[in-house]
Amino acid sequence: MTEAVTGAMIASVLLSLCVGIPGLAVGFAIVHTRRARQRHIARLTAWAALHGFQYWPKDQSALGLSRQAPFTTGSGHEALDVLRGTFRDVHLHCFQLRYRVSSGDSQSTHDYQVVAISLPAMRPLLDIAHENALTRRFDKDLEFEHQAFNDKFKIVSPSPRFAHDVIHPRTMEWMLADPRAHTIRWRFEGAWLMTFRPGRLDPQEVFYYAEFLHQVLAQVPKHVWSGP
After folding, report:
1. Among the three residues 13, 31, 51, which one is the final residue of a domain in this structure?
2. 5 or 211: which carries more pLDDT confidence?
3. Where are the alpha helices (DSSP H) in 56-196?
4. What residues form the membrane-spanning segments (predicted)?
5. Helices marked H in the chain — which ranges?
6. Please, are residues 114 and 96 in contact by the beta-carbon 8 Å criterion?
7. What is the pTM (predicted TM-score) of this model?
């Protein structure tokens, strides 16, 4: 066998390796991702059984919880790791919202953890967020007779009456005093009171947020739930 033939054979083997190794790497990555997902599903299944919840790895019906951002942001929306049960005698609903945003040739994936409790009656949208330099300058929200509150919180609702009934002076003082209210965003919408934060679902946080939502609900006067 000549040196030229031997060199060609070695080059061919090296080329095959160069082509094959990336393919093997992709294959291993896919298998690793699938196994990690299976382990994650097993952990959440066990968590749900422990706390008397029902669990679905994916349930698109959960997306009907809200018709506002981030539920309407981007495309390809998915409801992953959906947990449903009861907490303090109301329905508790939590899941991971996922959507994609395209910009030119690039695409990014975004996740939100959603935790919601059921309301005594259907009510209008009332969104409680936090003010910053941009929102103070460009976004219009409801004003209350408490400047320190207005400076801290951004309140949006198509029903000012409902907003003022829910956020009365005692509630404003509670929101200003409670550190959780300074970082957690929450929303009344339809049959639910919900909170959401960027990131994947963490079952260790579910009851923390659910407890906060119950304390928000406890601030609402009972007359808010009567009538149409």
Report:
1. 51
2. 211
3. 133-138, 147-152, 160-166, 169-177
4. 6-31
5. 3-51, 133-138, 147-152, 160-166, 169-177, 206-218
6. yes
7. 0.84
